[in-house]
Amino acid sequence: MKDLPVDRVHTLENFRDMYHFRDEEVLLCEAFANAQDVFLEDKIKKPTIEVTLEKTGPDVGYINFHNNGTPMTEKQFKKYHEISGSAKVKGGGIGFAGVGAKVFLASKIGGEIITITGKNNSDFLASRMLATKDNVQYEEISNLSEIFKDPSHKHKYGTTYRVRVNNHGYKYFKERLSHIVQFWWNFALLKKQFTVIVNGKEVKPFDPVQKFRKSFTWKKNKIECYCWVTRTEIPEERRHIVYAVHGKRIMNEVISQPINLKDGYFTRVFCLVDVSHLAKHIRTDKESFVGNWETNQTRHAAQKFFVEFLSEQGLLGRAASKTQTTEIVNEFTKELDRLLKTIDFKDLNPFLSARKRMVPVSDDDGDFPISEVEGEEVSDGKGTGGGKGDDPGHGEGKAFVEDSEGDRPGKHVEKKSKGIRIIPTEEFPDEKEEAWVDLKQGAICINVLHPFYITMRESDRFGKFEKFNIHRVLIEALIKFKNEELKEKWDPQKTLNMYRDLLHKTWSG
């Protein structure tokens, strides 16, 4: 048996092609990831990454990454030079692939990596890795003067990656170094997991005004977050939720839940979420997660949390209301439902029409082809309104038709009561109304975050204040809705009498 030969250059090219971003950004991320793994594993005090640029010729330069993490041992240093060889465990860090910055050897803008690890100028290990036309090779270096033109250069405690770049790569780094660090490692900068110094200047995190530090719990994991509401538009690559593992950005996604943000806020809100518990589920490109129950449920929990945050900030409009599952069902709701079907109070029922009228009737495909067109107005059953609503194109008002051409009239169908559903909602803390009728949900929604509702609940030892308040706001919501629906508003006396009578009949103390 013989070992299969390996084309090392082609293998590294394949690894490089897995990444979706520019080679320069891949190089920086891999150098930072290796440092972060050491920082976390060895609990380094005051962890720091220093990045410097050095121009050595018209068309070539170097970028140096130095970290003050624990230097590699001889065994680790030997393993480091193996392609796909690593002493790290998948899920234990961010730099687990065993390839790391070595992919840059196959880059058209690079091709050489010098690594120095050790305690000082006399106690260190160093090597040069180089890609040729059809191979990848390395050599050990014992004298730092072979690496640096300046003979006085001293190696500091930790590890340095010195990478050759062509003129295009050098210019890209020079113009964007701090931005690249912010984009990929913003969570680490915000949490001060390490300090980054670029050409002698500390890189500050991307941190627009009005930041909120938050957290939520999922499956016993405390997930830390930063949320922002900004004054200006944020870049698309930061919308709306950015997931980070051990300080590094992995991916972002826009809110997938059907919400209705207030005008102008869709591009001004975002959230940075630490999901380091998903480290074992990162794909090899380190820019996405493997799809499974744990990653999917974590992302769903993050989306839910962020929507709740937006609601707390009063950034959701009423149209964002979603169907709730928690309903208020008690003796009061049953009695209210019964009374709204009686002759005295049926006019208050928003879900019941006591007369026949033209209504949408689904066709064989389950679609509703009914629409309104100019024509004979629908009769109100009391001798007014103009007609039956089945004569499109004639008269004043609106007629109902049953097809897209407007030729066939709708059908006389009597609407039946759906019953009263009462749903508490926490979605609209800044809504001035305490309750409202939502025809789409077929329910009356109570705003349980309204300040007065909260006051009644918190000042009530025995629950009667809250109970009375629910009665009050529900009846008010029904009367307001009916008055908005009527062409002729009820006079104050009739409104107050209806309010009093329904309250007295439903209130049992």
Structure description:
The protein is an alpha+beta fold and 509 residues long. The protein has four domains: 8-202, Histidine kinase-like ATPase, C-terminal domain (Heat Shock Protein 90), CATH 3.30.565.10; 211-319, no CATH class; 321-352 and 417-509, Collagenase (Catalytic Domain) (3-Layer(aba) Sandwich), CATH 3.40.390; 356-415, no CATH class. The chain is 27% helix and 23% strand. It is built from nine helices and 20 strands. The chain has helices spanning 8-18, 23-42, 74-80, 167-190, 293-312, 331-339, 451-458, 464-485, 492-506, and strands at residues 48-57, 60-67, 112-118, 124-131, 136-140, 158-166, 195-198, 201-202, 211-218, 221-229, 241-245, 248-253, 269-274, 356-359, 371-374, 398-401, 411-414, 422-425, 435-438, 443-447. The strands form five sheets. Strands 5-4-3-6-2-1-7-8 form an eight-stranded mixed β-sheet, with helices on one face. Helix 2 (23-42) runs parallel beside helix 4 (167-190). The chain is elongated, with a radius of gyration of 34 Å.
